[in-house]
Automatic annotation (TrEMBL):
PANTHER family: 30S RIBOSOMAL PROTEIN S18, SMALL RIBOSOMAL SUBUNIT PROTEIN BS18M. This is Mitochondrial ribosomal protein S18C. Coiled coil: none annotated. It holds the Pfam family Ribosomal_S18. One of its GO terms (molecular function) is structural constituent of ribosome. Keywords: Ribonucleoprotein, Ribosomal protein. InterPro entries: Ribosomal_bS18 (IPR001648), Ribosomal_bS18_sf (IPR036870). One of its GO terms (biological process) is mitochondrial translation. Belongs to the bacterial ribosomal protein bS18 family. GO terms for cellular component: mitochondrial small ribosomal subunit.
Length: 138
């Protein structure tokens, strides 16, 4: 084939083989494709499960008379309330816990600066040593 024939022939310029040419010749644009090629409607498999705080998951409402539950959210060394990044509570429940801790302390159910020794061996709801982000107290 001459050089001019190669330039004018677009199929040979693409570098397609004869088997590819058969597919191109057999394809017609108006033809409907198979039903197997249609997209399938499914839920996104990569969507993460919505995280819930432990109090919302178990449907627990904090109460100032339940000092054992409230003491889980207080540091045994300083008496400070752990932050949300440590306890992994939602904003609403964290605010409720803080208000109930203040009520419990004012009513005399909880100490201000340390944790009740009877509550030190309770099972942990979270690990204060592994917060979401760093904190300056334990």
């Amino acid at each position: 084939m001459s050089l001019l024939g190669r330039i004018l022939n677009p199929i040979s310029r693409l570098g397609l083989r004869s088997s590819s040419l058969q597919v191109i010749r057999n394809y017609t644009p108006g033809e409907k494709s198979d039903t197997l090629d249609k997209p399938v409607d499914i839920e996104n498999p990569f969507v993460k499960e919505k995280q819930q705080c432990i109090l919302c998951k178990l449907n627990i409402k904090p109460d100032y008379k339940n000092a054992r539950l409230l003491s889980q959210f207080v540091s045994p060394f300083t008496g400070r309330v752990y932050g949300r990044h440590v306890t992994r509570l939602c904003t609403h429940k964290h605010e409720l816990v803080k208000k109930e801790i203040v009520k419990a302390r004012n009513a005399g159910f909880m100490p201000y600066y340390n944790k009740e020794p009877a509550f030190l061996n309770d099972p942990k709801l979270f690990n204060p040593e592994k917060p979401i982000r760093n904190h300056d107290y334990c």
